Amino acid sequence: MPTVTYKGKTYEVDEDGFLQDPEVWDENFAHYVKDSEGISELTDEHWKVINYLQDYYKKNGIAPMVRIMTKVTGFKLKKIYELFPSGPGKGACKMAGLAKPTGCV
Amino acid sequence: MADRITDIGPPKYDEMWPQYIKDNYGKWKYHEILEPGVLKHVTEDGFELFTVRCGGTRLMTTLHLEDICKIADQYCDGCFRFTTRNNIEFMVTDTEKLEALKKALDDNGNLPKGGTGACVTNIVHTQGWVHCHTPAIDASGPVKAVMDDLFEYWNSHKLPAQVRISLACCLNMCGAVHCSDIAILGVHRKPPVIEHSHLDKICEIPTAIASCPTAAIKPAKVDDYKSVQVNAERCMFCGNCYTMCPSMPLADAEGDGIALWVGGKVSNSRTMPMFSKLAVPYIPNEPPRWDTTVKTIRTILEAYANGANRYERMGEWINRIGWERFFEVTELEFTEHHIDDYRLAVTTWRNSTQFKF
Ligand code: SF4
Ligand code: SF4
């Protein structure tokens, strides 16, 4: 498995840069993904989405459907894409340390 | 994000039409098939268009595409098109050019003419071992083997009606296997292997559980790991759980193989569209030529060619003679695997005293 080192900490990731163990997640990992996603700064709005994804994942064991995520955060899908250019899956979920989305993506 | 262009869609559908298609759009009066692989369309004003259809391998290199473009440049004003079964069509507007084009295609050797009328045209197929992660069989390999064997039906019109063959390498059935005259389908025969130590880390357990059509999966604690358990008695090896959860692989060299299905169609002509139904539950994977599969398909095709009336599709023929007769004339074995046992199964059993001994 490839690893990435950021601010002195090493994270195990897969070939797409998704964290291999959600428990290892910390804020620095979000900052590391931010750089590779071309986001200059994590704003409160970013954190609102990231924190929501983490909460939902801890409670339900799955990532929320996009409709639920937009409803609860109040951010329309367009806004989510403005915050996370790669979208809610490859962008936001990766940053929040969730499992990589599966199925016929 | 600088200079990023997005949401522009495909080019407009008529942008690459040759001028004569633009001029005659919506004015076609009739068409005929001049010979296998060659069509003629005529407009109300008497304008004639000749189309030559050639087999495509679907998976092709840029070098092959370059070849195709060269022929299109030389004979067809730089235009050609791909069909919905991934054949290649070149068009010309006079018979002289048509003869020159036909000769150029023959000389090329990689663009066989055919695929029209009551034939076996191209096989709609999938990724297989070339690119997908859930296949039970390969796609390009079996397709090449079957088309080699049935080539005589590709460039002739000797069947009762067109026979559509499709292949999907797993029962996600990307493509057309569920609605084809003959379908080649990759199947597993063993339940998934569960990698407990990291399942919870890279899978959403509720998603894996919900992916199972027979509810064979339940959450379980195994050696202190949060994981799942599969009831092998309930599992019918669909592989859906692996699609959702990378820690449940089930591909297996000995277990995996081919099931053959028959009698589907999508057109509304004469009879309603039909799903294809199981003819052969399992044939082992036999790379690189899949001999048993190739042989069995020929057996089915020949039984159909001998028994069906003119215009009768595979499914119509079987419905007319009855499934017991189908198994008799093809000498395929009928097993318990053929009897539907999924939810609405009862609608497929026979509630009648009508049958043939
Ligand atoms: S049929 Fe299955 S294995 Fe084949 S390409 Fe589709 S999803 Fe992949
Ligand atoms: S292979 Fe299919 S039937 Fe078997 S456990 Fe997985 S989802 Fe269920």
UniProtKB/TrEMBL annotation, chain A:
Compartments where found: Cytoplasm
SUPFAM superfamilies tied to this protein: DsrC, the gamma subunit of dissimilatory sulfite reductase (SSF69721)
Pfam family, one: DsrC
Keywords for the protein's UniProt record, in alphabetical order: Cytoplasm
A GO cellular-component term linked to this record: cytoplasm
InterPro entries for the chain: DsrC-like_C (IPR042072), DsrC-like_dom_sf (IPR025526), DsrC-like_N (IPR043163), DsrC/TusE (IPR007453)
Gene Ontology BP, a term: tRNA wobble position uridine thiolation
Keyword hit for Ribonucleoprotein: no
GO molecular function, one term: sulfur carrier activity
Active site: 104 (cysteine persulfide intermediate)
Gene3D superfamilies membership: 3.30.1420.10, DsrC-like protein, C-terminal domain
Family to which the UniProt record says this protein belongs: Belongs to the DsrC/TusE family.
Protein name: Sulfite reductase
Organism of derivation: Dethiosulfatarculus sandiegensis
Automatic annotation (TrEMBL), chain B:
GO biological process terms on file: sulfate assimilation
Cellular compartments per GO CC: sulfite reductase complex (NADPH)
One function term, GO molecular function aspect: metal ion binding
Cofactor(s) required for function per UniProt: siroheme; [4Fe-4S] cluster
Top-level taxon of the source organism: Bacteria
Gene3D superfamilies in the cross-refs: 3.30.70.20, 3.30.70.3340, Sulfite Reductase Hemoprotein, domain 1
Name of this chain's protein: Sulfite reductase
Gene source species: Dethiosulfatarculus sandiegensis
